[in-house]
Design a protein that fits this description.
The complex is a heterodimer of chains A (251) and B (353). Chain A is α/β, with parallel strands linked by helices and 251 residues long. Helix content of chain A is 36%, strand content 18%. In chain A, strand 7, helix 7 and strand 8 form a beta-alpha-beta unit. Chain B is an alpha/beta fold. Chain B has helices at residues 13-23, 38-51, 61-73, 84-100, 126-130, 148-165, 175-179, 219-239, 259-274, 292-298, 315-323, 342-352; strands at residues 8-12, 28-31, 54-57, 78-82, 104-110, 141-143, 168-174, 181-185, 211-212, 243-246, 253-256, 279-284, 286-288, 304-309, 329-333. In chain B, helix 4 links the parallel strand 4 and strand 5. In chain B, 53% of the residues are buried. The chains are: A alpha/beta (251), B alpha/beta (353). Chain A binds chain B through residues 12, 41-45, 47, 54-55, 57, 60-68, 71, 74-83, 86, 103-104, 106-107, 111, and chain B through 28, 30, 54, 56, 58-60, 62-64, 66-76, 78, 92-93, 96, 100, 201-206, 209-215, 217.
Chain lengths: 251, 353
């Protein structure tokens, strides 16, 4: 009998703690599948964030390092400089990458650091109970924006991927999503290209993944996927933002 | 004793630290400019280029310490240096490294505080260094050089101790020692095999995956882990206390000082002795672990203890904890980046004799 679907070797056989409808499990699996396909599990090191994915080492079947909140790309930088032949990626949420770790991600990208950031954007702080993130949409209600995010009080949703694409140090910046099977497959291709960009030594790479947080959004998982499709992608358009391996007009 | 194979150089304290790190096999340095340790960052940028090592001028001290964390997790000898305000920013990463049991060397070429303070030399970061500057129950190993030679030697020792105990090690010095020039005997690199790091993140080839973390969501597991740390600190306290006795034989007044203040006190002791006054100096070399039993021993039969610091009085608390009411302990200090001078120390001693 032919096996057509199995747990990737890069994933441990451990039940995940993520809430139902959460995108983290899908993103974890996509990463694991890509690492298996590239045959690099034994030379991969992940740097886990502070936030919902803090215990990523429970799920990934390769080396994982914890980092202080937002310093994830710095820890990845330190590891990569010691083991330049390894694939080193940071796994970060929007609080980690777009709020407390803004300086760290910008300067890692600007140095052209040969690391990859997997940036899971669900527009909220999941673990601490659904507070406003820098990526929270205008009018979106959260635990700290009860009347909805008001730009006058709390600024605007930050497009950090577009900001990172401006620096010559970044080689591949892309935004995908995991709200539908089609987008999940596309996100996997993005992750693969980002890792390949690192392995080829082209520069810093980042995959932003729009992901849902039904518990804190206070809607069902199905409604969450629809919300990403109809609302979130209008603020955060999907697709390749920068790819130095392709001429500008082709992207 | 300088042998024929040893090379003597005139070096600044900051450069001696840097060369000490190179001799210790450090090939990963991450730092951010701050006065009065800038020569060290500049020195490392040049030396790392010479040897094909890693030098990154980071965007902040936060970034620098976390690059050190990553390099240490990957198994390398890694280092950063800064001065007081920058060391405050690094406390987050130092706390994580203590919890993750990662060895690394952090050099504080201290200046006056609090806040932006001054760029003059100071010893007012003692509490931050020897208690736990960041959050949580932990300690760093803390070494306090008082000569440019010791700036080199203690940096090398700090790497060895950090690796031996899987613990961050601090070299606590100050702007005066950092800027001072003295002849230094270049040490020979240790030819011994580097210590095994069976926990380092290298990629899981031929083994199971490893994780480096400080998170324990189970409260009892967390407490058990903290107890392990405490047992480690007890082992360190047992095995690694270092101190110097200077002209303490027959002393009636015992000066207690570390680092540059100890150096100044030595001159005061020599002058006092030449005047027939029974004065000696006890110098803690390790500030954590503190040489408490040695100090207690040195203070036996002493009439009065005078603690001299370039602070408003920090180490004096550890001296009082060690000696209790067995002997009167007084304090003399300067702060704000001002330097203690020999004449003032002698004047204080006169009042005690």
């Amino acid at each position: 009998m032919k096996t057509v679907f199995a747990r990737p070797e890069s994933m441990k056989s451990t039940p995940m703690h993520y809430c139902s409808g959460c995108g983290h499990g899908i993103v974890h699996r996509l990463i694991a599948e890509v690492i298996d396909e590239l045959g690099i599990r034994e030379r991969t090191v992940c740097v886990a964030p502070v936030g919902c994915a803090v215990t990523a080492y429970n799920y990934f079947n390769f080396d994982v390092c914890e980092a202080p909140h937002g310093r994830t790309p710095c820890v990845a930088t330190g590891i990569k400089r010691v083991h330049p032949g390894n694939l080193v990626f940071s796994y970060q949420g929007d609080g980690d990458l777009a709020a407390i770790g803004t300086a760290e991600i910008i300067h890692s990208a600007n140095r052209g650091e040969l690391i990859t950031a997997i940036f899971v954007n669900n527009g909220t702080y999941g673990m601490t109970g659904g507070q406003m993130a820098p990526t929270t949409l205008l009018k979106q209600k959260t635990a700290t924006t009860h009347m909805g995010r008001d730009a006058k009080l709390a600024g605007y949703p930050i497009k950090i991927s577009e900001m990172l694409a401006v620096t010559p140090g970044s080689a591949y910046i892309v935004r995908g999503s995991v709200h539908s099977p089609k987008n999940i497959l596309k996100a996997k291709r993005y992750i693969r290209t980002a890792f390949q960009t690192q392995l080829d030594g082209l520069g810093f790479s980042l995959v932003e993944v729009l992901s849902s947080c039904p518990v804190n959004w206070r809607i069902t998982p199905t409604q969450s996927n629809r919300y990403i499709d109809e609302v979130v992608t209008k603020e955060y358009p999907l697709g390749i933002i920068k790819d130095v391996s392709k001429p500008a007009d082709a992207t | 004793m300088v042998t024929a194979t040893e090379k003597k150089l005139l070096m600044k304290g900051n450069e001696a630290v840097g060369e000490g790190a190179m001799i210790a096999g450090c090939r990963h340095y991450f730092g951010y400019p701050i006065t009065p340790q800038n020569e060290l960052t500049a020195y490392m940028s040049r030396r790392m280029m010479d040897v094909g090592g890693t030098f990154i001028q980071s965007e902040s001290e936060l970034a620098a310490i976390n690059m050190v964390l990553g390099a240490a997790a990957a198994g390398a000898r890694a280092m950063t240096s800064s001065s007081s305000p920058g060391i405050s920013l690094m406390q987050e990463g130092i706390s994580y490294m203590a919890g993750q049991q990662l060895p690394a060397v952090i050099v504080n070429v201290a200046r006056g505080g609090p806040g932006l303070g001054s760029i003059g030399p100071a010893q007012s970061d003692y509490f931050q260094a020897v208690r736990s500057g960041g959050h949580g129950d932990y300690h760093c190993l803390v070494l306090a050089p008082s000569t440019v030679q010791e700036m080199m030697d203690f940096t090398i020792l700090a790497f060895d101790l950090a690796d031996r105990y899987r613990n961050p090690a601090l070299v606590l010095t100050d702007g005066l020692l950092g800027q001072m020039m003295e002849p230094v005997v270049l040490r020979q690199p240790d030819q011994r095999k580097p210590i095994d790091k069976p926990w380092a993140l290298t990629g899981c080839k031929g083994r199971g995956p490893r994780e480096i973390k400080s998170l324990y969501l189970d409260l009892d597991l967390h407490e058990a882990f903290n107890q392990c740390l405490q047992e480690k600190y007890a082992r360190i306290t047992q095995a690694e206390r270092r101190c110097e006795h200077f002209m303490t034989d027959g002393a009636k007044v015992l000066l207690v000082a570390y680092g540059i203040a100890a150096r100044i006190c030595k001159a005061a002791v020599v002058t006092a002795r030449s005047n027939g006054q029974a004065v000696g100096l006890f110098r803690p070399i390790t500030l954590f672990p503190y040489p408490t039993p040695e100090l207690q021993q040195a203070a036996r039969g002493i009439q009065a203890v005078l603690v001299v610091e370039m602070s408003c009085g920090q180490m004096v608390e550890d001296v009082r904890l060690a000696l209790g009411s067995t002997v009167p302990v007084s304090f003399y200090g300067r702060s704000g980046g001002n330097v203690v001078v020999t004449e003032d120390v002698l004047a204080q001693v006169q009042e005690l004799l």
